[in-house]
């Protein structure tokens, strides 16, 4: 499926989708090539549909792939149905995450939180579930709950940059710039270098009355 000197190896316009999508030896590789590399969601959806039918509607993998296509196409209710059906067959972190994402897309944050909670019951302390819950709580304005969840993320994965940054931001706006500065410096020690990070460090130094460090960070 790799590109050669004469162009692409797979010509989707001339490919017999029904034949190859029904073949379990090649259909997964073909789907991933079309979905991720070619980015042709229509053909990818066709492949996933034929493969699901060929598997007797009993393969959770193809239900997840169909749901991904539906999410990209904006067919959120169809995506939700496929993901719920997939969870009834096999519970995976990816499935819980995509189902919660679908609920967030249709503005149902409480359903998304419930999905993340169900995922944590099966996969305790999973970083994906905890991060998703923290984002939803933050969007709902529940900042204390969000920070508590981000701290749980750091307990499970101490180098999670998103969690470190969110906790640092909370401490800064909570009137504790010295503590926020420690978190931002931790991100800097991890090799991250950006204008936003240096500006945040400078603002923390300024709020903590460390004017010399503030100027050197910003300039």
UniProtKB/TrEMBL annotation:
One of its GO terms (cellular component) is non-motile cilium. It holds the Pfam family TPR_16. Signal peptide: none annotated. GO terms for biological process: non-motile cilium assembly. Coiled coil: none annotated. InterPro entries: BBS8, TPR-like_helical_dom_sf, TPR_rpt. Gene3D superfamilies: Tetratricopeptide repeat domain (1.25.40.10). This is TPR_REGION domain-containing protein. It comes from Caenorhabditis japonica. The lineage of its organism: Eukaryota, Metazoa, Ecdysozoa, Nematoda, Chromadorea.
């Amino acid at each position: 499926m790799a590109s050669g000197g004469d162009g692409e190896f797979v010509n989707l316009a001339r490919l017999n989708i029904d034949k190859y999508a029904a073949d379990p030896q090649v259909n997964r590789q073909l789907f991933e090539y079309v979905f991720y590399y070619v980015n042709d969601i229509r053909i990818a959806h066709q492949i996933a549909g034929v493969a699901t039918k060929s598997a007797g509607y009993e393969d959770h993998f193809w239900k997840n792939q169909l749901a991904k296509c539906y999410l990209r196409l904006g067919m959120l209710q169809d995506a939700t149905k496929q993901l719920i059906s997939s969870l009834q067959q096999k519970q995976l972190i990816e499935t819980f995450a995509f189902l919660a994402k679908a609920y967030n897309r249709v503005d149902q944050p409480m359903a998304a939180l419930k999905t993340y909670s169900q995922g944590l019951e099966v996969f305790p302390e999973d970083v994906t579930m905890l991060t998703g819950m923290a984002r939803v709580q933050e969007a709902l304005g529940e900042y204390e709950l969000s920070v508590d969840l981000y701290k749980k993320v750091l307990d499970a994965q101490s180098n999670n940059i998103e969690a470190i940054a969110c906790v640092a931001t909370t401490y800064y706006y909570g009137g504790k710039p010295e503590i926020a500065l420690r978190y931002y410096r931790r991100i800097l020690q991890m090799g991250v270098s950006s204008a936003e990070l240096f500006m945040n460090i400078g603002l923390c130094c300024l709020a903590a009355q460390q004017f010399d460090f503030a100027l050197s960070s910003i300039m």
